[in-house]
Every structure is written in C-alpha cells, then in structure tokens.
Specification:
11 helices, Rossmann fold, single chain, alpha/beta, two-stranded antiparallel sheet, seven-stranded mixed beta sheet, 9 strands, 37% helix
Length: 273
C-alpha cells in the first residue's frame, strides 16, 4: 500500500498522539464513533479499544480492503466504502439510529472545511467532533474579533471549538509540508436565535440567508463593512448604513471585528428590507 496524494493521505505514526485524540473525544464503552478516512486503521484500532462501536468511512477501495484485513480481529469495527460528503439519511438511520455519535478523524487537509460544514449543518449532527486538521485552519476556526473570518463565524455559530494539542509534521508518513492540530468541536444543542425583544422563535434564523450575509461581509476584507455589504448583497449603500446604524454597528467597521451576536442582530435588521 502507498499513500494517495490525490486523497490527501498522511498516516499518523505517533502512538502518543493517538492517545491524546481518544482522550480528547472523552470516549466511554457506550459511545458510537464515526471515523472518516481510517487508512490502515491505526486510529480506528485505538478508538475501538474504548468505544462500543466504530464505523469508518473510506473512499479509497484498496485502502478499505487493507484496513478490513489488518483489523479483522476487531468485532466492534465496521468499514464502509463511500464518500463522507455524500452520506445519506439512510446511512445514519442504519448505523446511528439513536442519533448520538462522535465524529473522530484525521482529515485530509483539502476536505477540512467541507467536512466540518457538512456535519455541522446536518440534521444528524454529532454530539462531538475531534479532528486532526492543519494547524493554520484550526487557529482560524477559534479566531475571535478583531481577527474573525468566515470559517470562525461558521464554526462558532454552530458550536464551541478549542485546540487540544499541536502535532508537528514529523508525526506523519509521508511527512506533510505543514504542522497539524487536534481540535475538539462541540455542536450547540440549539442554534443561536434572535434576542428576546424579537418575535422570532428558535429555528427562525434562515441559515442560508444568514451565511449569504456573512459571506458578503467577508467578500472584501479590506473594505469597510457598508461597502462590502452593499456590493455583496447588491443593496443601496444608504440603506445598508441605515441597517448598520439600527444594529448599532459603525459602518466603517470591518467584518472581522463583528461577534456572532453582531451578525445575528445585523441579519435580523437587513432581513426586513
């Protein structure tokens, strides 16, 4: 077997890091775990030693076959061939009917943002995610104003996130070009909602509209907020300034300085236009 560059495969070789990942997941013998990209099953085996059951999704058919063979002695492990970004309702109903599972994975760098968003937006959200990701991406996820970014707003809208440990690149084979980090993400049981003064109730934030607003705000980071919003949303600049004033946000601020409550307040007011 060899690592497939096109799939972003880098295999973890340090058993101490494996232990840190499993500890970060706070596994018990009643936990069900979904793993993405098990490779040869090094992390899979560590997870199976504690968890009740591990279901691992592997896109590489030859790697899935090898993983099954290497870990054939594990009775609580199941390798499923498939694309983690295309998991259906039927998959979750079959393997996680209780809707309570933990997602643990050493993610290919190029898939990180897509995987995180897929699972945070899913109606089958995991109760916890412990992920090995590129160090720079992990730092972006936990960034706060005045250094916020589109990814940090998305992650923090849906969850709380913290970096557990940093993992130098020498702990992988083949050695990647950058260092990694283990990050723990705990999805909110309820998504943020407008304030009590609003008649809106839980679930009334239209997530697509909300993130269209956020994307417009971050569309041109160097521009003042009123400019990026009017351009990104195709709205009259004077109206945007009125909405910002109503939201108590200075028009000359930049998107990276706004908090999640700022974005929600802005969403409420701009949605009324």
């Amino acid at each position: 077997m060899s690592a497939q560059k096109r799939l972003g495969q880098h295999f973890l070789t340090n058993t101490q890091v494996l232990q840190e990942i499993t500890q970060a997941a706070r596994l018990t013998d009643t936990d069900e775990v979904l793993e993405i990209g098990p490779g040869l099953g090094t992390l899979t085996r560590a997870l199976a030693q504690t968890a009740q059951r591990v279901v691992a999704i592997e896109k590489d058919i030859s790697m899935a076959k090898a993983c099954r063979g290497i870990n054939s002695d594990l009775s609580n492990m199941k390798i499923v061939e498939g694309n983690a970004l295309a998991l259906s309702d039927a998959f979750f109903k079959e393997y996680f009917p209780k809707k309570k599972y933990k997602l643990v994975a050493n993610l290919p760098y190029y898939l990180t943002s897509a995987i995180i968003r897929f699972f945070l937006e899913s109606k089958y959200r995991p109760v916890m995610m412990v992920l090995m990701v590129q160090k720079e991406v992990a730092e972006r996820m936990i960034a706060l104003p005045p250094d916020a970014n589109l990814l940090s707003v998305a992650v923090q809208f849906y969850s709380t996130a913290e970096i557990i440990t940093l993992v130098p690149k020498q702990n992988f084979w083949p050695i990647p070009k950058v260092d990694s980090a283990v990050i723990r993400i705990i999805p909110h049981q309820k998504l943020p909602t407008p304030g009590r003064s609003s008649p809106a109730r839980a679930g009334e934030i239209d997530e697509k509209k909300f993130f269209r607003l956020v994307k417009a705000g971050f569309g041109e980071r160097r521009k003042q907020l009123h400019n990026s919003l009017s351009g990104g949303l195709h709205l009259d600049d004077a109206k945007v300034k009125q909405v910002l004033a109503k939201s108590r946000i200075a028009p000359e601020r930049r998107a990276q300085t706004l908090t999640i409550p700022d974005w929600i307040k802005l969403y409420q007011n701009i949605d009324k236009l």
